Amino acid sequence: xxxxxxxxxxxxxxxxxxxxWQIPPVxxxxxxxxxxxxxxxxxxxxxxxxxxxxxxxxxxxxLHPESQVMPPPMDEFTDLAISVEMLTxxxxxxxxxxxxxxxxxxxxxxxxxLLRALRWFGADVDYAIPSRMQDGYGINRRIVEEFAxxxxxxxxxxxxxxxxxxxxxxxxELGITVIITDHHDLPPELPxxxxxxxxxxxxxxxxxxxxxxxxxxxxxxxxxxxxLDNLQGLTAQLLELFTLGTIADLASLTGINRRWLxxxxxxLPQSQLTGVQALIQMAGVKEDQxxxxxxxxxxxLGPRINAIGRISDPQIxxxxxxxxxxxxALEKAMQCEQINQQRQQLCATxxxxxxxxxxxxxxPWQQERVLVVVQPDWxxxxxxxxxxxxxxxxxxxxxxxxxxxxxxxxxxxSARGIPEFHVFEALLSCKDLLGKFGGHKAAGGFxxxxxxxxxxxxGLSNFAHECLQPEHLKxxxxxxxxxxxxxxxxxLYQQIDLLHPCxxxxxxxxxxxxxxxxxxxxxxxxGHLKLTVSQGNxxxxxxxxxxxxGEYCPLPTLVDIAYxxxxxxxxxxxxxxxEIIGIRLPESPPPANTxxxxxxxxxxxxxxxxxxxxxxxxxxxxxxxxxxxxIQKGQRTGLLGMKREDAKKVDVTKPPYYQLIKAxxxxxxx
Length: 670
What we know:
By secondary structure, the chain is α/β, with parallel strands linked by helices. The chain contains 21 helices and 24 strands. The longest helix has about 35 residues, at about 325-360. The two termini are about 20 Å apart.
């Protein structure tokens, strides 16, 4: 008999998601040594080992990044000194400076950061951000020519420019000084700018290697402020924008990022920026938090910023992040909220249409080892988000595009990869078929003529076959260690907090538990699966959520699960719940239940057997025909039936069940 209550047995669910689980071996001796050295629970010592941290000294730097001695940025970035010199001269001579940003969260926070800094330093500065709809990504000749018409003497790109040869050449020919600050992968030849600041020019071992565009902007602004001796009161403001942009851009939370983000996340709840205060209020982030977590930015603040650049005017965000007027800040934050709701609806519609197209067309993505989906009338501002969701669903690199223009002669698209696939290198391998393209290992953007689509698909498939094996074509669930529910506690969660900030490059710990019973399951919200699960002897119950997994309901009763621990605040209280990211049928059966007490008894001259399953706190009564009544302690209803499919709920407080249960409990001497 199954646990209570059962889901609607008439509902048809999908098979469990196909996943590949990567579980590292437990290094018992090393775990013990690291646990002794750090005071962390052995479970978390194993997590550190999985992150490549194996000594007490390495753990000290990881847990307390402020203790590490970092090289000065001037020693790392070859062109930083000349960039500071050119900006210092431009400020002194009141040369007009123009910032050219990008329309994603990284580009917009970078633009706002440098606007704040340069205005603070007394510069004559303005900005422009290319239109996602009309221009596409990056600085272009039109923007350069407009800057020239406005007598701009120095162009400063942020989060773009490293591949903009034509635009940079045009600026130089017009006599405009150009400083490129970017973090995207390097093209075979660099533009002929006056200075280039890009962490991809640094050695792999550099702690600055993983910074996003906003990280480059932060370094430049702080270095300039140090040169001008004018940072008092400014650094904290810039750090907040660095924190927002870095996490929203999914930059690696390692190296210098980890050091600065730990500080920035502590600052944000008491933000000095009027616009950030309004955004926090609008997004429903708890104002009494001592520190924000990356997920507060990744799932609450970041999407509201990103939505603007995707389907609206980036000027809204720039004004939000640079204003000191509370009224303007609240107005702009409300616009972010409304536009983000529109973005959510667009994403849901396009995702639904994409899945229907893939399934109905029977696209051979497993044979091609890459999924290319192009359809008309999709908003290219949000298709990158949909690409990420399709990667989660199908486990292969996804290139998704939509047609442009009435004649559908051109395609613009976004790409998302998997760990074994390098998106930018894939695009580079098809460069002869593409117009503009750019990106990095995990994501990219591209444009091409419609007539080149078939050749582009074949080129991507050829590239995928060189780096992907069939076993790679399932979503990867990377797990840290096994854990029993009895080990989950507030104390463990507090220790996990020492590992933050977690995200790209430093993922949240992922635990797994075998042979978990699904006690309750229901669909909530926009297709999410809410669960109560139990495990262990005696059984421990805990709440769980599986985002966007409603289609898999009902789940089997017994499963292995992989999950993160998260806090859930409900009705004024805060508790721990599981965020399930992996599920599979048990690979090994649960151990024999030694806690089940069984006996026979008679009631109304009929023989019954009854048992108490202590791990589930469940009484089961079986009649001679094999029908079972199952009741859990404290419940007014039970399940009656031969098997799961025909079980029905009954009120056990009414005859004849009440008397039958009483006879069974007497027989078991309960």
